[in-house]
Every structure is written in structure tokens, then in C-alpha cells.
Design brief:
It contains 17 helices and 22 strands. The protein is an alpha+beta fold. The strands form 6 sheets. Strands 13-12-9-10-11-14-21-19 form an 8-stranded antiparallel β-sheet, with helices on both faces. The protein starts with a strand and ends with a helix. It binds ligand MV4. Ligand MV4 binds next to strand 8.
């Protein structure tokens, strides 16, 4: 059993991992940069060591320094959290060379999954449905023309070593092909150091549904159901939930089996996530796999009752999974909101600064995985995620009611956050009904970008936007300031408003 674990991360996820270590009786070692001397994760650790200047390339990405601290502090294992070194296949190799255990999958699994062309080929061979398209890089514009005539428009160009939202272009028709080809290649080169791109058929308004898997080093693999992650803004997830409102027991069984098959295809162990796109017909396609603990893991923990970090620790120690598939049950529903230090009124620009006031919600069904405190100064150097607010309810309706209540209780004073934006989404009729797909925010909450509009329709879009702005202005000036749907006394209403607006 591990006596001491080094956590090679910062912020809320470092704290989350240390909490699991503490429960299992393991000591914890934190590392931190010069920008993080006052960070909360240091206070949760038994020991903390400075590893370098603020930029992550000189601190949280310094494999050599982190391994040196692990050895000198007597830790036996390193947990990478998410981001930073979590999906770099060189890191588990370096750990192994130093006689340390990497708490995650093998370097080989990470490497196979990191190349989209390799993973598309492997998944196809394993019988996992992938989005129709190519499994070879596109060699030239002429070749792309041939592929396009087979795949048909609209199609997507994607970076072979990409992931997330970068190196990705939607092509509506022939006329956009040449410029999209050049743009995607150069973006892939600058973002990933590799300009290999490939083609996929474009799925219109898909849902993003991912399956949590757990696999041990003895060949056992189970899934823990799905997370619905369709609510994203510019490829950044902001709300996730489990179960997905569109899931049926039959589809869950089919997709879960495919998720396990995907994990087995790369000899996976540890906690992992298999992402799928699901179209309007309920047809689903493998998109990519994440070989790490994910930001949104708490929603799965709340509905399954399984602590995923503890499971990772057990697996890394070489223990067999203590559960069989039949032991896994989803109970109730959970929703997570990511709270970012971003200004929704200023194009979601990061909004670092000092937190002058903080009220963290609590009460029935509420969990807050945070990395901040009153008086803390949010540094500019890292991801602006402040905390994750998660609600559990006996059903989706109760989970929605609870997270709405908790969002009202949440007060962060001194910096701008996306809390008002989250409240707006959670109040939306379509969200409440569970009518969500990957275009939800652009359709219902904010305007999208011109790039998403076919070239031929861009003038029409500008005219429509002008008419919309005009009509909204008319409506705004003709409607009462606040419509009171619920009939409650003016006295109570005044009191509630006073509470909600204090410290704003
Ligand atoms: C797609 C797609 C439609 N068709 N691929 C965006 C991020 C990257 N991980 C994959 N993405 C997409 N790939 C095909 N063939 C639509 C998206 C997409 C998306 C996917 C998941 C969550 C949110 C999204 C928002 C816009 C587009």
C-alpha cells in the first residue's frame, strides 16, 4: 500500500485527490509554483515543495523537478490530476525509471489514444462505431477533393493529434474546402507540432455523451454509466450531468459495452472516459478517449456512490477491482456547474484578482469541490476554474432545483465570475426539459460566431441579428422589470431579493 502520494497538480483537483489519500491513510505531498505560495492545495498537504517560477512550463510541467521531489520526500506514487502531465506518455515512463508508480494508465495506452488516426483504426477493428470518415492523413488538396466527394458535405477537418476544440473546421461545401484545408493544417502545426489532418462526416447537433470506465491491471473492466456534457461554450464544458436526460436502459447497455470494448482495445487500466457523439436517431459514434480523471468525475461519483480517486489508487497499487458490472447502479441524478473566474459581459475574458468575499453553498445534496478561500488572489497563469458546484437529487428535477438554489447562495466578491451566466442557463426552459445538444448555448444563450454560418448566408445572418436586436430592445422597454411568476408576498420577495443582492 502507498504510504505517501505526491500530487502533481494545483487548485481544486489537487485538493480532491489529497482528500482521497487522507481517507485511505496515505500521506500527501504538494508541489507548487512561485505564483501559488498562497494556494489552498498547499494547506491540504502534509508537505509542500516549491518547484519553480509561475509559468507551468517552468513548474507544473517540469517532470524532472517533480520526480526529484517525489524521491526526496519518500513518496511511492504520483497522481497527475487532469491537464498538465496527465496525458503525456513520457511522464509515466519517467516515473517508472525513477521507481515511482504513476497513478493512471500505461504510457502505451496514452500513446495509442493520443493519435486519432491510430485510435480510429483500433476502434474500427475492435467493432466500436466511429464517425464515418478517413483513418489516414490527407496528403494533398486534390486527395481531399476525392475524399470529400465520397464523404459528402458538410464535413469536418480534424487534426490527427488534436483533441478538444483545436484544429477543427466545419466545411459546408466545395467552395470552402481549399481555405479550410490550409487553415486546419497550419493550426494543427502551430497547436500540436504536427500538420496531419483527416476527414469526418459532420454530425448535425449531436449530443456529447461520455462513459466512465474503470479497469484494473488484471483484465477486469466495468463502466459506471454516462455523463451528458453537451452544454459547452467554445469547446469548454460548463455543465455536466448524469444520467443523460436522453438515455434509455437499452442504449446505456449498448454504449456501455462499446466503452468497455474501447478500453480493452488499448489494454486500458485506471479510470478513463470514452467520449461519443450521439445523433438524433440515437446512433452513436466513438469520438475520443480521455486517459485521465476528468473535471466532471463528481457527477458519476454522486450517482454511483463510487469514489473514483480511491478506485484509481487501488488500481495503481495493483489490486483487483472490488466491483463487478452487476454491482454498479445509478441512483438519482447529479448536475455539475463549473465556476470560472471569467467575465461573461466581456467575452468571457479571464478575470483574476483577489477574492474579497466568499459564500460557498451547502445544505442537502450539495457538494463544492473548490480551490479558493476568502482573501485568496486568483493568479493569471493557470486555468481560471475556481470550483465545481455539484448537486445530487432523487431525480433530475430535484437535482436542478438544488443546483439552482445553491447557485443563488453562491457569492464571490472581488472578481468577475460566470455565476450569472450559469444561473441563466439553469433557468432556461429548454435546459429544465432536458432538451440539450452541443449547440445549446449558441442557440439559446449567446450568439455564435460567423464561422459557424455558411459563407453564402452570412449577410442574411447579419440582417437577422439586426432585426433581433431591434425586437429585443422594443420588448425590453415595454416589459415590467421583473415578472413574478410565483405568487408570493411582496414582503417575502423583498427580503429574498435583499439576501440575494447583498455583497454583489
Ligand atoms: C464533431 C462534431 C460533429 N461531427 N465531429 C468538437 C470538439 C471535438 N472534441 C469534437 N467536436 C465535434 N466534433 C463530427 N464529425 C461536432 C463537434 C462539436 C462538439 C462536440 C462535443 C461537444 C461540443 C461540441 C460543440 C461543437 C462541435
Amino acid at each position: 500500500m502507498f504510504k505517501k502520494v505526491l500530487v502533481a497538480n494545483r487548485g481544486e483537483i489537487a485538493i480532491r485527490v489529497m482528500r482521497a489519500c487522507r481517507e485511505m491513510g496515505m500521506g500527501t505531498v504538494a508541489v507548487y509554483s512561485e505564483a501559488d505560495r498562497q494556494a489552498l492545495h498547499l494547506r491540504f498537504a502534509d508537505e509542500a515543495y516549491l518547484i519553480g517560477p509561475p509559468p507551468s512550463a517552468e513548474s507544473y510541467l517540469r517532470t524532472d523537478k517533480i520526480i526529484e521531489v517525489a524521491k526526496s520526500s519518500g513518496a511511492q506514487a504520483i497522481h497527475p490530476g487532469y491537464g498538465f502531465l496527465a496525458e503525456n506518455p513520457k511522464f509515466p515512463l519517467a516515473c517508472q525509471e525513477a521507481g515511482l508508480v504513476f497513478i493512471g494508465p500505461s504510457a502505451e495506452s496514452i500513446r495509442l489514444i493520443g493519435s486519432k488516426l491510430t485510435s480510429r483504426r483500433m476502434m474500427t477493428e475492435a467493432g466500436v462505431p466511429v464517425v464515418p470518415g478517413t483513418c489516414e492523413g490527407v496528403g494533398s488538396l486534390e486527395q481531399l477533393g476525392d475524399i470529400a466527394s465520397k464523404v459528402g458535405f458538410p464535413l469536418m477537418l480534424k487534426a490527427a493529434t488534436g483533441g478538444g476544440g483545436k484544429g477543427l473546421r466545419l466545411v459546408h461545401g466545395e467552395e470552402e474546402l481549399a481555405s479550410a484545408y490550409r487553415a486546419t493544417r497550419s493550426e494543427s502545426q502551430s497547436s500540436f507540432g504536427d500538420d496531419t489532418i483527416y476527414v469526418e462526416k459532420y454530425l448535425d447537433c449531436p449530443r456529447h455523451i461520455e462513459f466512465q470506465v474503470l479497469a484494473d491491471q488484471h483484465g477486469n473492466c466495468i463502466h459506471l454509466g454516462e455523463r451528458e456534457c453537451s452544454i459547452q461554450r467554445r469547446h469548454q464544458k460548463i455543465i455536466e450531468e448524469s444520467p443523460s436526460p436522453m438515455m434509455t436502459p437499452e442504449l446505456r447497455k449498448k454504449m456501455g459495452e462499446m466503452a468497455i470494448r474501447a478500453a480493452r482495445a488499448v489494454c486500458y487500466y485506471s479510470a478513463g472516459t470514452v467520449e461519443f457523439l450521439v445523433d438524433g436517431n440515437g446512433d452513436f459514434y466513438f469520438l475520443e478517449m480521455n486517459t485521465r480523471l476528468q473535471v466532471e468525475h463528481p457527477v458519476t461519483e454522486l450517482v454511483t456512490g463510487i469514489d473514483l480517486v480511491k478506485a484509481q489508487l487501488l488500481i495503481a497499487e495493483g489490486k483487483p477491482l472490488p466491483w463487478k458490472q452487476e454491482d454498479i447502479h445509478q441512483r438519482g441524478a447529479a448536475i455539475e456547474c463549473r465556476i470560472y473566474a471569467e467575465d461573461p459581459d466581456n467575452n468571457f475574458l479571464p478575470s483574476p484578482g483577489k477574492i474579497l468575499g466568499l459564500t460557498i453553498p451547502a445544505g442537502p445534496g450539495i457538494r463544492d469541490d473548490g480551490g479558493i478561500y476568502e482573501g485568496y488572489e486568483v493568479p493569471i497563469y493557470y486555468d481560471p476554474l475556481l470550483s465545481k458546484l455539484v448537486a445530487w437529487g432523487s431525480d433530475r428535477q430535484e437535482a436542478v432545483q438544488r443546483i439552482r438554489r445553491a447557485l443563488q447562495e453562491y457569492k464571490i466578491v472581488g472578481i468577475k465570475t460566470n455565476l450569472p451566466f450559469l444561473r441563466k442557463i439553469l433557468e432556461h426552459k429548454a435546459f429544465i426539459k432536458g432538451e440539450i445538444d452541443t449547440h445549446f448555448i449558441n442557440r439559446h444563450i449567446t450568439a455564435g460566431t460567423m464561422e459557424e454560418v455558411p459563407a453564402a448566408l452570412r449577410e442574411v445572418a447579419v440582417i437577422a441579428a439586426a432585426i433581433h436586436a431591434y425586437e429585443r430592445e422594443i420588448n425590453r422597454t415595454q416589459q415590467p422589470a421583473r415578472s413574478s411568476q410565483q405568487k408570493i408576498s411582496r414582503w417575502k420577495e423583498a427580503g429574498r431579493q435583499a439576501f440575494l443582492h447583498q455583497n454583489r
